[in-house]
Amino acid sequence: MQVRLSPGVEDQAPSTTRSHRDRGAAVKRGVDVVVALTALLVTAPILAAVAVAVLIGLGRPVLFRQRRIGRYGREFTILKFRSMAGGSGTFSPGDDQARLTPLGRWLRATSLDELPSLWNILRGDMSLVGPRPFPTSYRDLYTAEQFRRHDVRPGLTGLAQVNGRNELDWAERFAYDLRYVDNWSLRLDARILARTAVAVLRRQGISAPGAATAHEFRGTAAERQVPATAGRGSR
Fold first, then answer.
1. Scanning 8, 110, 115, 119, which has the fewest C-beta atoms within 10 Å of its C-beta?
2. Whole-model pTM?
3. b vs e for 142-179, b when ≥16 Cβ sit within 10 Å of the residue's Cβ?
């Protein structure tokens, strides 16, 4: 499938050597640590205010925790602010429309629900930029090609997020994720971050058509086996 990159986010040809990419990866990790730590300190008052709002509006727990698939298939627990109600038998897992509260919609629209994930970046579970981390229940639904999205750390934002986010269908999402994996560079990361700021301000692609959030991934009709070398350990 031919994928077009949005203006300002150009495909980057893999012209650098392995050593250059290794140095770039080290710089990327350094940037992740500095930005995540700075952002946690700067947004501490916002984090506290949102936590109180969630506690009053939704009750405990304030944080949403879920196991996600990380780099090389290793699992980690992602942290977000809770945006949905219930889940104790009143709602089915897929009933996002009923569970998503007005407060939750606002948190998602402003991306404030993602702020606790800065801790995941600081820990090394995630990066600022990369394919979004998916639930562990998706693991056995991937094709071997789709699983390559885990060759890099998952990101707070990514190429798919600045090219449609939840409005994309699954084939388009995977295509953007794999293009990022194959063409990663610091320059591309910088452009994605710049476009992310615009997307957040414009509140673009928050929900999939006909859904409160995103449609569930149910796999494809193709091969559903992940590489035998893929890691399944948890951290």
1. 8
2. 0.80
3. bbeebbbbbbbbbbbbbbbbbbbbbebebeebbbbbbb
